[in-house]
Amino acid sequence: MRPEPSPYAERVLDLVERIPPGKVMSYGDVAEYLGEGGPRQVGSVLSIWGGGVPWWRVIRTDGTPPPGHESECLRRWREEGTPVKGARAQMSRARWDGTPL
After folding, report:
1. What whole-number distance in Å separates Cα of residue 34 and Cα of residue 6?
2. What is the pLDDT of residues 17-71, one digit of tens each?
């Protein structure tokens, strides 16, 4: 049985839920936006509790999906119109900074 999410995990999950379709944030972007934790902590939160949020919108800084989830991410990115080049999100066009669109 999974433990309940910590207050930090809840903040991560809330932010990930707000990333608009077609946009992405890196793990580090999420941590920086929240002003706490780091990329590894964000990844841990998503690996444990991220199934109910659009986890495919949180990726590596180089635009690559989480390891093992490449085909699912690419499929969802295509559905949402995320700017992609090859198997990577185009961070210069797809990165969301947390401001309302």
Report:
1. 14
2. 999 999 999 999 999 999 999 999 999 999 999 999 999 999 999 999 999 999 9
Q: Tell me the two tokens of residue 62.
A: 């180089």
Please check whether residue 92 lies inside any domain of the structure.
no
| Three state DSSP letters for the chain | CCCCCCHHHHHHHHHHHHCCCCCEEEHHHHHHHHCCCCHHHHHHHHHHHHHHCCHHHEECCCCCCCCCCHHHHHHHHHHHCCCEECCEECHHHHECCCCCC
Q: Looking at the domain assignment, is residue 96 inside a domain? A: no
CA distance 27 to 60: 6
Total domains, the chain: 1
Q: Give 46's contacts (C-beta < 8 A, 6+ positions apart).
A: 12, 16, 53, 55, 58, 66
pTM, full prediction: 0.94
